Amino acid sequence: MWPWMRFDRAGQSELFECEKSAIVRRASIPARDLRILGPVFSHSSNILARDKAMVVNLEFIKAIVTAEEVLILDPLRQEVLPFVDQLRQQLVPKSASKTQEGGPSDAVDNEMHVPAGRRWLPVPEAAEGLQCELPFEFQVLEIALEIVCTDLDNNVAKLERDAYPILDELARNVSTKNLEHVRSLKSNLTRLLARVQKVRDEIEHLLDDNEDMAQLYLSRKWIQSQQSEALLGAGASNSISPAVPPLRRISSNRSGSVVTSNYTADNDVEDLEMLLEAYFMQLDGTRNKILSVREYIDDTEDYVNIQLDNQRNELIQLQLILTIASFAIAMETLIAGCFGMNIPCPLYDINGIFGIFVGSSGAGCFLLFLLVLGYARWKKLLGS
């Protein structure tokens, strides 16, 4: 049993539990679509169009949207609660305002009809503001995108607040603790970039295919289905009535004018395209922020590597100087060892020769040290 919350067009909500099969029958979707909403695809992003529903899997928001209602999976999760609250704020005031203003004249004024033979076909409330209001399914999609984009923006802002002080501290002091912080920071950045990229790619995929966007107009397809049923019913009840041409316009009793229906224009996806482009640009900006942080990390790592290379070079120079000094001392030791042998030598008979000999050999070895050191500097093996 999965927990679900249902919101209809009027803003009425209901919390219930049911099996997968019941949801499949209710939303008329394939059973495999429910696997996308399962825990295996918890961090994937998909917006799938079906005949009578739209399957939305954006980060933590998992919902099934039809032309008349939205079913939200696991609505009591902490991350999903803002989405539920936003739906209440968006949908409830509209139904409440219609109830307060409702009267006999308003009810007729708020409901637009299309003649179909000798019958009148009611159009849902979402068609009331054709030019200024999105269909119900796109209102839900917009709220879902807004919540997801806001959550990603907040995570990126937190990442930026944590990243720059850690990287500056690493640039000042290269230590195991600071390196561990940077490693954790890079892991979080990689995961966050992947999340943003998935949502961005899904929106980009929809923007690249007008047919997929047209399939997301559930209210349009619902109205076309109702029109077809009404025409078939009118033809069956009165076979001698003249054929009604395809309906292309919806008359508004309120304005007294005739407006072109966005629901009947099959190739008109401008509203959805503008909606998706707005959030695509927002996600692109979020992605650029993450890339800026990653670039700053790369720059800091390059700076740290330069520091480490400089320290390594200083150690090599110190090792070279010590090697030259060891060579000079070894030469003096060689001379002392030669004269320490028990072999007769005329110098042994000269009084006071010991001090002169030791001083001369020490000075010669020191001069040898300076000569080798100068040669190393001349070859630029040592810094100046």
TrEMBL record:
Coiled-coil portions: 182-216
Membrane-spanning residues: 320-344, 350-376
Primary location group: membrane
GO CC terms, sorted: membrane
Membrane disposition: Multi-pass membrane protein
Molecular function GO labels: magnesium ion transmembrane transporter activity
One Pfam family recorded for the sequence: MRS2-like
Location relative to the cell: Membrane
Keywords noted in UniProt: Coiled coil, Ion transport, Magnesium, Membrane, Transmembrane, Transmembrane helix, Transport
Function of the molecule: Magnesium transporter that may mediate the influx of magnesium.
Protein family according to the UniProt entry: Belongs to the CorA metal ion transporter (MIT) (TC 1.A.35.5) family.
The protein's name: Magnesium transporter
Organism: Punica granatum
